[in-house]
Amino acid sequence: MSSLEQQKPIIKGRGAQKNVRNRFFELSHEMRDDFLEFCAKEGEDADKNKTVYLETFPKTIVNKVKSPDVGMTYSMNMYQGCEHGCIYCYARNSHEYWGYSAGLDFERRILVKKNAPKLLEDLLKKKSWQAQTIVMSGNTDCYQPAEKTFQLTRQCLKVFLKYKHPVAIITKNALVLRDLDLLKALHKDGLVAVNISITSLSEDTRRILEPRTATIKKRLETVRTLSENGIPVNVMLAPIIPSINSHEILPMANQVSESGALSIAHTIVRLNGAIGEIFSDWIKKTMPDRAEKVLHQIESCHGGTLNDSRYGTRMRGEGKIAEQINMLIRLAKQKYFKDKMMPRLNTQLHEQYKEGQLKLF
Description:
It contains 13 helices and ten strands. The chain has 361 residues and is α/β, with parallel strands linked by helices. It starts with a helix and ends in a 25-residue tail after the last helix.
């Protein structure tokens, strides 16, 4: 890191504090000291820090999930990249496949799949398609800020409703309540479940971990509103990061249970691919007093490395710290969710609605 880069202030409203090299590219670029010095003298910004939306044209929108420990069979993502800017996000690595950096590019270059609703409808109409729950946001958040402009998630929910097909949602944005009318209609036939991600009860922690997400207060209100309308809600306490939010497991579980959540799930943070470098750079700039401690504790959960791709252990970790975290989660489930359970979604109706309406014969 150059001397002038070290002096740069924290980039507000962003998680990553730099772009890292794309592993698929032979060449890379960097901010040179002489360019930074020129910008400083001229009073110009070396980096405009603007979000750009780029339309893409995929041929399919629903993906088969092959990972054995993710907990979903099919997923779909209307957007690639995510303006929420969560520093730990595993989806950052996928941005490299599109030719961008997993760092700031992931938050500022958002790829938009405007044909997603049409692609989804084409799939659900196929005679060969057998109904299984499709999860929106298997990679990036379907209710990120771009959704306010493009409304692709809302359009896709209308398709699911038309064909009576089960859908699950993962989000950390209160914007999901905009579509409460559609969620209620889907719920009448047991076709929807919502997973809300909550990683802390502290706004200070939330603000630096997930800079452009809904506040914790709004997320808890979202859990309550959905639950009051009968829509089943699971809360993702994910990821748990040692010495950042690991001490909040029981208070978080208590709060979300009181708000109406039917269950909780968790993962222990893992920093695969480019995320290790991005996270390490971020924590040394935002939490210099405990950066090394946190990094070492993360390593202790994954066999001495930040990068853990081992099925079966990558989500839950290993070692003493991981054992303590997993034990607290088990205690939280027993204490706050003993008599609660998420329902199975209805896969029986779709075959009768292949044409978008109930078959008479």
